[in-house]
Amino acid sequence: MSVIQSIQEKYAKLMAVIIALALITFVVMLAFENGGSLFNGSGSRDVGKVNGETIEYVSFQKRVDQTKDYMSQQGYGSGAALDQQAIEQTWNQEVGRLLISSELNKLGMMIGKRELGDILYGPNPPQDLKQQFTDPATGQYNATLAKQQIDNLMKTGSADQKAQFATYVDQLELIRLNEKYNSLLVTSTNYPKWLVEKQIADNSQIANVSLVRDFYTSIPDSSVKITDEEIKDYISKHKKEFKQEESRSIAYVTFSALPTATDTAEARAKVMEFKPGLDTTADIKQFLQTQGVQNFYNGHINGNRIQVPLKDSILKLPVGATYGPYLDGGSFALAKMIGVKSQPDSVTVRHILVGTTVADPQTRQPVQIRDSATAFKLADSIRLAIAGGSNFDTLLQKFSTDEGSIANGGRYEKILAGAMVPEFNEYIFSNPVGSKGIVKTEFGTHYIEILSSVGNSPAYKIAYITQPIEASSQTDANASNEATAFAARTKNQKEFDANMQQLKNSGKVKAIASDIAPNAAQVSGLGLSRPFVRNIYAAKLGEVLAPERVGDDYVVAIVTEINEKGTQSPAKARFAVEPLLRNHKKAELIIKKIGTITTLEAVAAKLGGKQIEVADSIRMTNTTSPILASEPRVVGAAFNPANKGKVLTTALEGSNGVYVIRVDNVSATSIGDANVAEQRRSRYEQQKLRGAYPQEALMEAATIKDNRGKIY
């Protein structure tokens, strides 16, 4: 012991220092992995900022989780796609909240205690409160009961429940404040009478012009060169039109890991192994469970509700026969006919559920209140009591644990076969109207009365067993190895293109994905993969990414473009700007060729014998002239009072070519729809609609920093 103690005393301080250094190193590594520094704060986990106000990660993530829970309950699915939807929706809500809150604070708008009471208990309560506290007998919202329940929650509820309710109230207040703010904007809208009258007067004008035109296509594009400096100069004068958000572009090639023909044959052979057992089993439910099938519906379903491939062939099977294998989506399937009978298309019932569990009011977790034997005895006692004359509604209110049906008198209207659990389903579809009985299900014991039924059709009980067609480990390895080999010999754009040429005979093509946003979860042409997008943003321009599995493919990509937030580069803007500048230069050449303008005949001669054309019945707005329909500058010149009866001495640079015009006549015509009051009212309503959605304008004026791409 003394030796051990001596070693401990001698090296204790040294070990403490080593451990401390190791911990510091670990923390520093984590900080730099997150792209930041412990000392300058750049490793912040803030999700973003709106006009300098921080959106903090912890509270944001909590709202994301709440949104995901809600969306999942509403049937939006699950997985990575739901995560991205929830993040995007929460971000938009949070940005909108901060923008509106800032405006509301400037205006001094707020919700007082009396107004909050009106929101919760007034004539127009929130829909969820209205549903929960509407008296089924009167159909009226019971505001008194709602207030009692909410007051009780705030007195006896858990901290989490109180916090959730406070968040709920915050949202209701924000909605009301939004309504007030929008109302303020809408009620300040005006569409003046004089403007309507001017528009009507303008629309009554009609012009006839004669013209000579020379299209830009008369000059070859190759003869006009546009430099980067010219494009840069154009961008600097039109910066608002060339704003861009941060984005990346890639070129990529995919190596498929989808099942091969061999994998498909193996899946077919595997499902056939189940056929002998499926044909001979006496206990179909037990057999299917043994094979891992957990979704067998042990009840009859009307034929018109069965939606499976090759349905017609399956429904013709005799009882006991098996059909297949056949393709069902990405699986091979076998179908066995278990039973056929006639039954109603829909049934209306009422029931009392004597459950074995109820939801805890605080945690909403199931809590056992009785065992199944006690539940059965109580349900049977209810049956006997009702048979002896007891009131159904009284017993329903006293004993039923099915909260969803109590408010409706225990009724379920027009139930379709398959909508309820199998035992419930079999009883109500196998017995005549008027039947009353006891049925045990996974929820407890039900006393059921069959009130009515509609229609009668053949119904089928069918067992299905499937085998998915999946890629084997060898198929996956082959795809991965191909991708790895391609990436290993590809270090830059030149090698990427050269190696793609070598793969042409195998059917591989180079794909392009442009303008990938930092928060994107999916790349065009590929599946959902947020990690893949993060890797694109971690790479440099021209860098080849390591092979990565995205959906059913292994992907090798190269970063071909990096666009920072701000103004587009000349290279990026060239596609849009070059045609404009080219046409402008062509216009200068054509105008120079025309020289001094005297008459249309002289201009036509200078342009190589062009014809003098006539455009008549031109309107200031919505002109239908085939010659001038897309030439607003020329139409505008036609209605300039100073030009009437004259040949314009200046050639007009139009959208499609250069125009020299003579305004032959301008006159006024009657307009059939000239009701000033009606038009003013219509345009006022249109303006109100525009004013009712201020968030876009607020975002345009705001400074918004979005860090989601660095966190999620």
Could you describe the 3D structure shown?
- By secondary structure, this protein is of the alpha+beta class.
- The chain contains 26 helices and 23 strands.
- The strands form seven sheets. The chain has a four-stranded antiparallel beta sheet with strand order 20-3-22-21. The chain has a four-stranded antiparallel beta sheet with strand order 16-5-18-17. Strands 6-15-8-7 form a four-stranded antiparallel beta sheet.
- A hairpin with a 2-residue loop joins strand 1 and strand 2 (53-55).
- Helix 3 (80-107) packs across helix 7 and helix 7 (159-187) packs antiparallel against helix 24.
- The longest helix is centred in the N-terminal third of the chain and has 32 residues, at 2-33.
- The protein is extended.
- Mean pLDDT is 87; it is low at 1-43.
Beta-strand portion reads 15-25%
Largest sheet: 4 strands, antiparallel
- Tell me roughly what share of residues is in helical segments: 40-55%
In quaternary terms, these chains amount to single chain
Count of helical segments?
26
Read across the widest sheet, the strand sequence of neighbours is: 20-3-22-21
Q: What low-confidence regions span 5 or more consecutive residues with pLDDT below 50? A: 1-43
Mean pLDDT: 87
Category by helix and strand content:
alpha+beta
Radius of gyration: 37 Å
First-residue to last-residue Cα separation: 53 Å
**In total, how many beta strands?**
23
Query: How does the overall form come out from the CA principal axes?
Result: extended
Quick structural overview:
By secondary structure, the protein is of the alpha+beta class. 46% of the residues lie in helices and 21% in strands.
